[in-house]
Amino acid sequence: xxxxxxxxxxxxxxxxxxxxxxxxxxxxxxxxxxxxxxxxxxxxxxxxxxxxxxxxxxxxxxxxxxxxxxxxxxxxxxxxxxxxxxxxxxxxxxxxxxxxxxxxxxxxxxxxxxxxxxxxxxxxxxxxxxxxxxxxxxxxxxxxxxxxxxxxxxxxxxxxxxxxxxxxxxxxxxxxxxxxxxxxxxxxxxxxxxxxxxxxxxxxxxxxxxxxxxxxxxxxxxxxxxxxxxxxxxxxxxxxxxxxxxxxxxxxxxxxxxxxxxxxxxxxxxxxxxxxxxxxxxxxxxxxxxxxxxxxxxxxxxxxxxxxxxxxxxxxxxxxxxxxxxxxxxxxxxxxxxxxxxxxxxxxxxxxxxxxxxxxxxxxxxxxxxxx
Length: 372
Fold this sequence. Notes:
Blueprint: H1 2-24, E1 41-45, H2 50-55, H3 57-66, E2 71-76, E3 92-95, H4 102-105, E4 109-115, H5 122-129, E5 131-138, E6 149-151, H6 159-165, H7 185-189, E7 205-209, H8 221-232, E8 237-240, H9 247-257, E9 260-261, H10 268-277, E10 280-284, H11 287-294, E11 299-303, H12 308-311, E12 318-322, H13 344-347, H14 351-363, E13 368-370
Parallel strand pairs: 1-2, 1-4, 2-3, 4-5, 5-6, 7-8, 7-10, 8-9, 10-11, 11-12, 12-13
Helix pairs in contact: 1-5, 8-9, 8-14
């Protein structure tokens, strides 16, 4: 049901988005005066999943630092809105897929709207219909016609840097460097684990996430189970996380290794805290991988169709496992084309390769890429 809704919205965007962009070019502009110095109301638009929202947080921080005293509002989706509960300085979070929120965000005046969507049209359409002094977004297609200032979208830049590039056209200085964690320990400690307190091990544990929002990125669940057994052999407890859609695979992995599954039992702030207190996070390219980076955890990431340049964690303590096939990466703007070799780029990653990366992460915390 959840994935069908996402698929429907993407198809709707492709069908009506270009037409709406053309029509909006014929309408009077709903604008107010713009001054960076007097900017007091900012709307940041972030559709999509958890990962993009997490990687947007450094840009949000840069806006807070530059536009001191401004009220910053977020227009998100129900599936990623909880990310913004983990950061400071947000006046309010609305969801465009909650009809009741439209009366709150649609009739407000904004000094600045920053649309962070990379390619789809509908967020740009909404931004154009709102009353604003200035609108900023990516010039990835004809959606650029709906913005006052645009930034080129680079398919090879780390997504944190891509989001920060939106600030260049506004002459907002980028941070000299972006260092994790960019979700504070104070915000994590405010997330009570509730009844999970008695479940989470008090001894060192590794967090496994055997899921991914896109099926083509998933490593076979049997290999996750084998990895979990190998990790238990290193005297590490195993905690398996995920959403309601991951219940079956998480339960199988936990049962095989004598670990603990909390899949479907946590809010996003709770799972962020569980990840932050573990010794290592292991998962495919996913929102929870980026969340693990944001809370300062060491990670092992399995990459297949996704671009390592754009999505792999940066900094010490992170390792990427990839076969490096000539056809990889094939994903573009979140869309993975049909594969003639059944996604061998992720399906053929061996348990031994991932386990070796985990041992490196646990013992030395080094960063690198394991190929082969």
